[in-house]
């Protein structure tokens, strides 16, 4: 069964994919079919400055997401889509970083 998502420019959908080694996060505006933010643990600016583990890089992706939301005047997200993945170390580090700013829906 397919879910219908409802991301808007002011309340986008947060989609997170966690592979065996990396974490990818996107803020998606479903109405206009646009990606407002994309971040991953593979980005050189996140992973290599200074060098860190993938768990620490996942936390940095969450911090970059918060910065992007502040720049775009986004105060909340419409839904949090984990794509069926369980909460591993990288996912928990990412969620802690964004929940401290109130971006996880209740």
TrEMBL record:
A Gene Ontology BP annotation from the UniProt entry: translation
Protein name: 50S ribosomal protein L18
Family membership noted in the UniProt record: Belongs to the universal ribosomal protein uL18 family.
CC terms in the record's Gene Ontology section: ribonucleoprotein complex; ribosome
Domain of life: Eukaryota
Coiled-coil boundaries: none
Keywords: Ribonucleoprotein, Ribosomal protein
One MF annotation (Gene Ontology) recorded for this entry: 5S rRNA binding
């Amino acid at each position: 069964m397919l879910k219908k998502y409802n991301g808007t420019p002011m309340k986008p959908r947060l989609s997170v994919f966690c592979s065996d080694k990396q974490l990818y996060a996107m803020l998606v505006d479903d109405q206009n079919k646009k990606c407002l933010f994309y971040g991953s643990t593979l980005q050189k600016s996140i992973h290599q400055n200074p060098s860190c583990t993938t768990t620490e890089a996942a936390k940095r992706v969450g911090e970059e997401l918060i910065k992007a939301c502040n720049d775009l005047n986004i105060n909340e997200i419409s839904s949090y889509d984990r794509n069926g993945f369980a909460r591993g170390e990288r996912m928990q580090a990412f969620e802690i970083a964004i929940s401290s700013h109130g971006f996880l829906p209740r």
